């Protein structure tokens, strides 16, 4: 299993970013996927989950209404659209298959 996240960066509060994660080594469409984040205090938090065909998703309360998880099974790619970003969203973001995390991408929200 390989999971490679990208799309992070430095953004001002209120800004937007779109994260992508390319998956390989397994049949992507058969598995639910999630985004998790590790905060500067090293706390790991599940952000959002999506089922295999993209018809169901679930979010942690802190990001509801601001973040959208989606997937393109033809491209083996998972996405996280993040709008109205806040400083507390700053973290390393990972895509994950169950407990398997790939390389993360840093998101920093700061003025």
Layout: helices, strands, pairs:
Layout: E1 2-6, E2 9-11, E3 17-24, E4 33-38, E5 44-50, E6 57-59, E7 67-72, E8 77-82, E9 91-97, E10 100-101, E11 105-109
Parallel strand pairs: 2-11
Antiparallel strand pairs: 1-3, 3-8, 4-5, 4-9, 5-6, 7-8, 9-10, 9-11
Helical residues, percent: under 10%
Shape: globular
The Cα radius of gyration reads 13 Å
The main sheet comes to: 7 strands, mixed
User: Structural class, from helix and strand content?
Assistant: mainly beta
Which stretches of 5+ consecutive residues score pLDDT under 50? Answer: none
Cα(first) to Cα(last) distance is 37 Å
Count of runs of 4 or more consecutive helical residues: 0
What is the ordering of alpha helices and beta strands?
EEEEEEEEEEE
Summarize model confidence as the mean pLDDT: 97
Strand proportion, as a percent range, falls in over 45%
Q: Count the strands?
A: 11
Give a structural overview.
This protein is mostly beta strands and 111 residues long. It contains no helices and eleven strands. It has strands at residues 2-6, 9-11, 17-24, 33-38, 44-50, 57-59, 67-72, 77-82, 91-97, 100-101, 105-109. The strands form two sheets. Strands 2, 4, 5, 6, 9, 10 and 11 form a seven-stranded mixed beta sheet that branches. Strand 4 (33-38) and strand 5 form a beta hairpin. The chain is globular, with a radius of gyration of 13 Å. The model has no long low-confidence stretch (mean pLDDT 97).
């Amino acid at each position: 299993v390989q999971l490679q996240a990208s799309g992070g960066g430095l953004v001002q509060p209120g800004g937007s970013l779109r994260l992508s994660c390319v998956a390989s080594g397994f049949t992507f469409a058969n598995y639910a996927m999630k985004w998790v984040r590790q905060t500067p205090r090293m706390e790991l938090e599940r952000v959002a989950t999506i089922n295999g065909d993209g018809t169901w998703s679930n979010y942690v309360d802190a990001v509801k209404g601001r973040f959208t998880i989606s997937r393109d099974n033809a491209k083996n790619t998972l996405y996280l659209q993040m709008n109205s970003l806040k400083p507390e969203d700053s973290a390393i973001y990972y895509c994950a298959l169950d407990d398997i995390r790939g390389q993360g991408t840093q998101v920093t929200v700061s003025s």
